Amino acid sequence: MEKNLKRIAYAAITSVLLITAFFAFQLPNTQLNYNFEEFFPAEDEETSFFFEHRALFESDNDFLLIAIEREDGIFNRAFLNKVNQFAKTLDTLPNVLFTRDITHEKESFIYTGGRRGERPYIHLDSSNYHQDSIHIFKNKELINTMVNAEGTALTVFLRHKDYLSKAKSEQLVADVKAVTKTYDFESVRMAGRTVGQLFYIDTMITEMTTYVSMSIVLVIIFLIVAFKSLWGLMVPQIVIVGSMIWIVGFMALIEKPINILLIVLPSIMFVVAMSDVIHLISKYLELLRTGKPKTTAIKIAFKEIGMATFLTSLTTSIGFFSLLFVNVIPIQDFGLYTGMGVLFAFVLTYASLPALFYLTKVPEVGKRTDRNFWKPIMRKVFLFTLKKRKLIPIISILAILLFAYGASKIVVNNFIMDDISQDSKVKQDFDYFDDRFGGVRPFELAIVLKDSSKSIWNAERLNEIEQIEQYLINEYGVSINTSLTRYISVLHRASHAGNAEKFYVPEKQSTIRKYKRMLKIADQGKFIRSVLDSTENTTRINGGVPDWGNIKATEKNKAFNAFIQQNKLNEHLNVHVTGTAELLDRNMSYMSSSLVEGLSFAIIVVSILMALLYRSFRMLIISIIPNIIPLIVIAGVMGFFDINLKITTAIVFTISFGIAIDDTIHFLSNFKLELRRGKSKLYALKSTFLGTGKAIVLTSVILIGGFSMLLMSSFMGTFYMGLMICITLVIAVLSDLFILPLLLLYFYPGPKKKQLIKEIPSDSQTN
Q1: Which CATH architecture describes the domain 381-410+616-767?
Q2: Can you give the residue ranges of the SSD domain (predicted)?
Q3: Is the backbone of residue 214 left (phi > 0), alpha (psi -120 to 50) or beta?
Q4: Is the four-CA dihedral 354, 356, 361, 362 of positive or negative sign?
């Protein structure tokens, strides 16, 4: 028998080490992914429409905006000549398609007879730019696009190739920065997809490294504090480090990149694995201290803690798996792989620790007792709970009502850049463009002829499109970059000697035909393709708006749609707001229903597990109540402190429920075991509280310590995730120590209430 056990133990350890080595070998292949488009709603009509629309034209998000400031004003000869040379140099960089800036822009003129001429907006060889500045500010399409309204900054618009890889994006930004350093500008700011992408990826790499390093340090600290021995420090490392290696190695093996949400994976694996380890080792050491032989202690610990830990791992993974209900691929990936990681940690714990217990000597820590430290504390807490058995429910109900009111104040909102801290240079630069240059949030409008046999060049249709554009400029707040009617208006103004009052679409069809010919031959026909598809049935209006959030954007869209309906502009045209920002906003409209579905799924599945385990409807309710309270509290905190419900904060609810219920399951499982040993309900409750209570407090401290690492994140979404889960864990442990015992005392089948009250120590006995 002894030889068989030793053989099994060696086989288990060897298998675990081989699997761990295999996954460790995959780690160098780990990939990082930051792609906003993966946050678009999956299998959604609007997403499909956008991709089809973009295929007709070009990406609405592949550009760099470079703002160059001069406090004394931009109309300075030396400054403007430097900008001119700067833009020319940028034009020569790899992956740059073209640049635009005010020093290279020219105003076109069309003379009688069709002869064309051009005049630069800026005369670089001039010593007096007064006339140039007056002329520029008369041309409204240049303000807040080429120059700011104050005349203290201008922009260089750099259009680069679509969908640059990380390496090419990195090279482009590095090249632009290198060129910028050769010019002595007062201040240069950059914004664009490549800048944001590089910031996210670099920060992801830094934070992944930080979280792994801090996890290792915290593991060492917690294990030393918990077990005060070299054995207690070394043995659990296989599970804790191994679980991280398994899940990250598995993702590398199947070539699944780590997205912005999955950077918290090391922290989650640390706390989950530590929780499994603490419960099993604590029980094993407790049994050794009672005089049980090593083999017997291993068997009892495996049997009594194994099922409870399996259930806690299952419920935690269910919490993560419930994120599969959210119709966003990165969130689904986060839920799937984190849930798998939780199950990996359970398998590692029970495949390796019992074998290690068997193959190592009984640790000295197993011969000591910590009764003098933990038991007096837990006894006082238990007696306090009994003594305040009337006050605790009253305070709990009042707190629930208060936080439920706070939850009613939650706002569903999302900003493109709200995951970045205000202290970040990237965030400050994006905000600058929002304030001074019309915004960097892309705006895209698709306009399609309902009757494909008709022409979009019809004067009436163009007049309708012009009405739409004027509304977008004056009411919606769009800073227009490109549109068919804008190009026609520019040509019409050019035909009238640059008269700004002639900046509109003409009514005469013959005049429109003339401008049509000019536009179609410009740049060998490529120019018109930026705003009109090959069938000439679909056109676009492209521009930028401030990053004003999902709520305001939704209100703007409702007002815009009402304008279209009221003015009957949809009789001949299909008008469709689309684009990357619009799809991210649309995602938020699904978030509330997805959150409810996912959370409901988690609660229902956990409830079924509780019902099957305890075969009692009362126990089902008793187990759920302490874990609903933390969810109400964090919802209330979000409402009171104006923390918006968005992708990164919405997923906290399902995660929190899955993690919070762990300690409840351990408590109830131990309570059931004590009852089976023949103890009365009160004394079974006391034994459970004193024994399992220590593990609950210890694991909660570890979990809070692990998730508090996320508070150091540069991503506000990750910061709030860490904060909300820490609050959840604090409330969960308070619920398990003060509310759960009273629920069991009064509602678990057993002695009648009056008889129980007689058994409860009096106030004098509790002192």
Answers
A1: Up-down Bundle (1.20)
A2: 264-359
A3: alpha
A4: negative
Burial of 511 (0-12, 13-18, 19+ CB in 10 A): middle
Angle at 663 between CA 661 and CA 666, to 5 degrees: 110
Q: If you count DSSP H runs as helices and E runs as strands, how many of each does the chain have, helices first?
A: 26, 10
Predicted pLDDT of residue 230: 67
Give, in words, the CATH class of 61-198.
Answer: alpha beta
Q: What is the mean pLDDT of residues 481-490?
A: 90
What gap in Å lies between CA 65 and CA 241, rounded to an integer?
44
Pick the CATH number of 1-30+229-367 from 3.40.50.150, 3.30.479.30, 3.30.70.1170, 1.20.1640.10: 1.20.1640.10
Residue 310 in this model has a pLDDT that exceeds 50? yes
- pTM of the complete model beyond 0.85: no
CA distance 160 to 181: 20
Q: How far apart are CA 562 and CA 555, in angstroms?
A: 11
Long-range contacts of 97-101 (CB under 8 A, 24+ apart): 97/159, 97/160, 97/161, 98/159, 99/156, 99/157, 99/158, 99/159, 100/146, 100/156, 100/157, 100/159, 101/146, 101/154, 101/155, 101/156, 101/157
Task: Name residue 118's beta-bridge partners.
Answer: 108
The closest alpha carbon to 447, from 540, 352, 521, belongs to: 540
Q: Which residues pair with 108 in a beta bridge?
A: 118
Strand pairing report for 538-545 and 441-449: antiparallel
Helix/strand/coil for 62? coil
**Which ranges in the chain are annotated with CATH 3.30.310?**
61-198
pLDDT at 463: 94
C-alpha to C-alpha distance for 184 and 156, rounded to whole angstroms: 16
Q: What is the pLDDT of residue 449?
A: 94
Q: According to the model, what pLDDT value does residue 181 have?
A: 93
Residue 66's SS3 state is: strand
**Has residue 688 got a pLDDT over 60?**
yes
Distance CA 36, CA 125 (A): 44
For residue 313, the tally of other CB atoms under 10 A from its CB is 25
- Among all chains, which residue has been given the structure tokens 């409750």? 685
* Amino acid letter, residue 466: E
Give the closest residue to 728 by CA, choosing from 640, 629, 596, 647.
629
Q: Is the model more confident about 365 or about 332?
A: 332
Contacts of 180 (CB under 8 A, 6+ apart): 66, 86, 188
Grouping H, G, I as helix, E, B as strand and the rest as coil, residue 100 is strand
Alpha-carbon distance of 600 to 612, in angstroms, equals 18
Helix or strand holding residue 355 (H, E)? helix 329-359
Cα–Cα distance for residue pair 741/215, rounded to 1 Å: 33
513-546 pLDDT, tens per residue?
988 988 888 777 777 888 999 888 999 999 889 8
Contact 627, 732 (CB under 8 A): yes
Asked if residue 87 lies in contact with residue 132, where contact means CB atoms within 8 angstroms, the answer is no
Kindly state the tokens that stand for 18. Answer: 């081989």
Q: What torsion, rounded to 10 degrees, do the Cα atoms 534, 538, 543, 548 define?
A: -140
CB 130 within 8 A of CB 38: no
The radius of gyration of the chain's CA atoms, rounded to the nearest angstrom, is: 33
| Tens digits of residue pLDDT in 422-452 | 888 888 888 888 888 877 788 999 999 998 8
Ranges for all domains in the chain classified under CATH 1.20.1640.10: 1-30+229-367, 381-410+616-767
